[in-house]
Design a protein that fits this description.
The chain is mostly helical. The protein contains 13 helices and two strands. The protein has a two-stranded parallel sheet with strand order 1-2. The protein is elongated, with a radius of gyration of 24 Å.
């Protein structure tokens, strides 16, 4: 594994080797010490006030309890996303907003992927609504907690890949696929499109303090807004060039997005750091606070679902926002129809 520049040897604060930590203790004594250290950290962690993240901004205060615990060095550690330079934060938010803006561009480039023929299939409107609504709910509710486990970058790249691949298949094989095949790929396409909407706010929370999130949100919204209104024009301009040239340029742009989006999840950043330290020191028992205190993903999903339904039942403003969004989408769809006509 290549050592990231941010976690190179010069940034390693101390020796995490087993010999340096435990000296001449026997294997059984080392095992008992490890269990005791981890138990102490878990008990101290449980005593912390419950927050949405359940992990402190930096966990250096736990180092004295566990010598094999890898943490951020302090609250000002440059590895911590909230301590990144402003230009890097803005760059990260801009790239993340482009992921959210991928859906309208793909919809404009592959118009058949957004429409299924009800006439040739005899299907009900209810089925079509489920194909479009259910994956959005799944993406908004489930993908967020998954990004805490697997990282923001992996989830964003996977979701956009699913969006582009499924939309392309539906558009190319629209007349050959059965309705079930069209509905399945349309389901995946919508799921891929909705996932960045769930991961994006987490990226904002990763890199900005609560007082600065508003400014980051304004930058973040530029991508989808520009994409919704600029995609039809951009697609028509692209179609003026040969198909191979256009496809090549599109692939280059997506490859750059995949490569440039940085990981912002503190858990994954520390995971990269501890992976490097394990290689350099040979101590395979090094760990992070996230790894030894993380709840099972089933528990996180259950809590997230409960919070979502509680919010849906207690915030009427959400329904107003959904109505406004539906009206706005209808206006944009009408503009697209007039444009293509």
């Amino acid at each position: 594994m290549t050592i990231p520049s941010d976690t190179s040897e010069k940034n390693i604060p101390k020796d995490f080797s087993v010999e340096n930590i435990y000296g001449k203790l026997t294997d059984d004594e080392i095992l008992q010490s490890r269990k005791s250290h981890i138990q102490s950290v878990r008990l101290a962690f449980k005593s912390l006030p419950k927050t949405r993240t359940r992990v402190p901004q930096h966990d250096a205060s736990f180092v004295g309890m566990d010598p094999e615990l890898v943490t951020f060095e302090s609250a000002s550690d440059p590895l911590y996303p909230k301590n990144w330079p402003l230009r890097r934060k803005l760059f990260t938010v801009v790239v993340a907003s482009l992921y959210v803006g991928a859906e309208p561009f793909v919809s404009a480039a592959f118009p058949k992927s957004t429409t299924l023929s009800l006439a040739h299939s005899g299907s009900s409107v209810f089925v079509m609504l489920m194909v479009k609504i259910v994956p959005r709910l799944i993406g908004l509710v489930i993908v967020g907690p998954l990004s805490d486990y697997f990282g923001r970058k992996v989830l964003l790249n996977a979701s956009v890949s699913i969006l582009i691949g499924s939309s392309t298949l539906v558009h190319v094989y629209f007349d050959r696929f059965s309705f079930f095949q069209l509905a399945s790929f349309s389901f995946l396409s919508t799921l891929g499109a909705s996932s960045p909407l769930s991961v994006g706010p987490k990226i904002l929370n990763d890199v900005f303090s609560p007082s600065a999130v508003g400014g980051g949100l304004l930058v973040y919204l530029c991508g989808p807004v520009v994409s919704y209104f600029g995609s039809p024009v951009a697609v028509n301009l692209i179609k003026e060039f040969p198909a191979g040239y256009s496809s090549g340029c599109f692939c280059v742009v997506m490859a750059l997005l995949f490569a440039l989006i940085p990981e912002t999840s503190p858990a994954m950043i520390l995971h990269q750091k501890v992976t490097v330290l394990r290689q350099l020191t040979g101590n395979k028992h090094l760990h992070t606070l996230y790894e030894i205190t993380r709840e099972p993903i089933s528990v996180q999903l259950r809590r997230h679902l409960g919070r979502t339904f509680a919010m849906a039942g207690s915030h009427p403003s959400l329904y107003i926002a959904m109505l406004i969004g539906a009206l706005l989408f209808g206006v944009i769809a009408a503009i697209w129809a007039l444009w293509w006509a």
